[in-house]
Design brief:
Oligomer: single chain
Strand content: 15-25%
Largest sheet: 10 strands, mixed
Radius of gyration: 30 Å
Structural class: alpha+beta
Strand order of the largest sheet: 3-2-1-4-5-7-6-8-9-12
Number of strands: 28
Low-confidence stretches: 149-154, 421-434
Number of helices: 26
Amino acid sequence: MEKWGTSSPIGKELKKIVTSKLQMGGINKIQANFKIWQESFRNLYLQDEVNQELFVKHVQLITSVFFIIYIFQERNPNKKNADQISTVQNKFHSMEKLLKIPSYMRWIIENQDIINIFFAEYERLESFKTVSFKKEDLFTQIYQELIANTTRHPQGEFYTHSELARLMVGDIYEFGDRVLDPSCGSGTFLCEIAKKIFTSKKTMVEKREAYNNLHGIDINPLACFMARANLILIQEEQMNQLIDPKIIHDNFLFPSNPTNHVSQVKMDLLIGNPPWVVLNRIASKEEKTRIKKLGMDYGILLGGKLATSTELTTIFITHSQRQNLEEGGKMFFVTPASLANAGQHALFRQFTGLKNIEFWAFTKDVFRIHNHCMKAEKGKMSLEDRLKIKWNIFDCVENPFSVKLASTQWYFPMSITNKDSKIEKSPHNPIKTDCSFLVGRLAPFDSTTQKKMISAIVNGNSKNGEQESSYKSKFRQGASLVPRNLLFIEPISNEKDRVQKIITIQPSRWIQSKKYSTWQFKAFERAQIESKYCFSVAKSTGLIPFQYIQKYHAFLPLNKESDQSYTVNSPKTPFAKKHYQLLTKLYQEHKKDGAQISNLLQRLNYGKALSDPRQFMQPKVVYNGIGSIVKAAIITDPAIIDTSLYFFIPETLPEAYFLLGILNSPYITRRVKKVGSTGASGSLRNIHKHPLDVNIPEYCSKDLNHLDLSSFAKELEEFILKFIATLCKQDQSLIDKPKTIQNRLFKSTAYLSFLNQLDHKVEKILKNRASM
């Protein structure tokens, strides 16, 4: 790394050469190829990333690969002379035929300045005579160092640790298998298989045949280049005549030449780490539309917001299984954990056309995102047997990284629901009856409950015999107030402003855009707006059990009409109108090319959640849609509810407190943890409407248990209000730190005692309800 990275002597010299050429006047060869390179990567990376800096890094990477392979092959440095320069260039050209360098980078192997850099370093480092290379994914370290996470992750690229790949390959690969990695990246899995082939005791003829059965595809030309380089390096110590690695640069889902494409070949083994990216993060509108259609054709894509949060991984796995896997063939993929637990993948979890399904889970996250590995065979199996999942749990150790099997359990869905609307037949999905179930989160389950659940489905029950709460249809999700950096503000007022009802605003310091987002910029320094366009907003980050404690503010184009209702329209007053025009301009400039919502007004009022009359009513019962526990509060002040919260307008305050007690009880969190999706380290993440899947009865003022719970919840609310006041008296800064207050609350023995009493009261009500 120290010889080839961006800060190495070679790296610095290369950067100097390329940058100087790019900054020269006129059009030279490097500038012309830079333009072609830009067009090739526009649909792969964020627009801001496809710049000269990234181009330089790609040049550094490709040059380093050529240098290293040349050194590995030659080993004997010669003094630079005209013949030797010609020899090196000829060698580079022969290497280029195997590596298949992209056309816009071929100038590298002909550039005299780059050849001179190579010789200067080659002659200086005597260690090259005895350098020893390990047969491993050698260039991946350089790739990781040169190409930043912010560039790779928006495309769903997550590097697979070689130890994990080695373990997966050792578990499933059989010598001679026809293998396809449909998103091969730098070739980690194929390299592990190649090493297993060449270290076997088979004859060289058998090894060559087995190696020839390895295939890889990737949409990123640089990744394909790296995969070929890694595979060539592994061959070098084994064979006199190198075999051209079967790595194809193409779109696996939509190949440019489908009639002559390796993706049409039936394989014995599919293995790899498909892209980890949700559909709404795909930049190209055309590509997103095609992928959604493919998901619908396969019968694994749900509608609405669930469609946009679907992982591309599910479509990769289904497509490769249906199109590329031989009957009885095997598959083994690294996947986000959401495939096993998130609501948007409920149709995928039918595992149609698969059998003997197995998941690997890990005690620590192998990636920054919570992940599993999914293993299966292609074949027919009954729904009941198919959904009995073997669940292997591995201990992870760092420095050095290793994984070891710790235990094995059997998992089963926590719920199986008959899908109301049937999925239409298509060429990809001819089996209509196998695509009518919404399969819940996978979790440890006993066989008695499993049989009861299957029986309920077979007999046509809607949801495992349990009725959801009538409150489920009455709670609604708040408004999607994005982009955050445009809308969330901090008012800065003075006496003159208050008199004129004009306020000065600046962007909020508390609201951050998502990482890798195109909205990570400061929209304005300061601005003035009419105060009526500044609204209080409630977000889940301001919520703790029984109290909402942090106010946010947002500039929102809400106009009050004569009938006291609000409409989402361009502001009519001069200051707000001018500021809104600025935000509209910024929205148009920075929105993704693939965005289906074309303007800011439509974005703000998605699903009419902002103009909903209930947004302007009080009081509201709110609970969080995401988080590690369910928590709820009653909001009595005017506030717009943001999408991270669900809210309900109660008929009476006693009803509000009744729901407050139910939703804050540990009993509800325990129930949700069985069905809700998980985040990092397996903790609860997505709550959404799962609390209302519990059969919560409607409040009845004549029911003594309901009255008792309502009264107790009010008492708890008052306790927490005093608890907060005491804390903030000691440290006033805590009022803006809900998380700190919540952490201290959970250390309070008095509060924990209250929670135990609350749990008893809630369980009594819900068990009485279940027995009716």
